[in-house]
Amino acid sequence: MELRQSKRFPGRLTLLIYRKGRLVASGMLRNISRQGLFISTRNPNLDLNQDVEIEFHLHDPDVRGYQRVDATLVRCSPNGLGVEFKEQGDNPGPELRSLLRWVRETNFLIPTGLSRHAAFK
């Protein structure tokens, strides 16, 4: 049974994962919603419920430099990590709003007709 509260959007963007300000992993955005995202990565040495920061660069002239959002690790699988954003609701911060907008505007670039996992390798 699907318990998600928000629609997920496919995305493809390199993400960096920080723990206490230290880079611990990198990966590829697979999908995102207003509540969180899934990162395809080899499992770094992280435990569930740890706080992490997700860093990204949108390659968008309207958004300069690297952005970070705070999140909590809620899922570890052989395919990657699921995180829940700390800032949620109807009024997310500017970094999260920029990321959500960018994914919605660019997700049509993700190849279709590939297997679910092949599109993100």
Describe this protein's structure.
The chain is mainly beta and 121 residues long. Helix content is 11%, strand content 39%. The chain has one helix and seven strands; from the N terminus they run βββββββα. A six-stranded antiparallel β-barrel has the order 2-3-4-7-6-5. Strand 3 (22-32) and strand 4 (36-40) form a beta hairpin. It is globular and about 35 Å long. Mean pLDDT is 81; it is low at 112-121.
Topology record:
Layout: E1 9-10, E2 14-19, E3 22-32, E4 36-40, E5 51-56, E6 67-77, E7 80-85, H1 94-106
Antiparallel strand pairs: 1-3, 2-3, 2-5, 3-4, 4-7, 5-6, 6-7
Average of the residue pLDDT scores: 81
Based on CA atoms alone, the radius of gyration comes out at 14 Å
Topology order in helix (H) and strand (E) letters: EEEEEEEH
Report the uncertain regions. Answer: 112-121
- Helix tally? 1
> What's the end-to-end separation, in Å?
27 Å
Q: What would the principal axes of the Cα set say about the shape? A: globular
What strand order characterises the main sheet?
Answer: 2-3-4-7-6-5
Number of strands: 7
Binned, the helix content reads 10-25%
Strand content: 35-45%
Largest sheet: 6 strands, antiparallel, barrel
Indicate the structural class: mainly beta
Brief synopsis:
With 121 residues, the protein is mainly beta. Helices cover 11% and strands 39% of the residues. It is globular and about 35 Å long.
Features:
121 residues; mainly beta; 1 helix
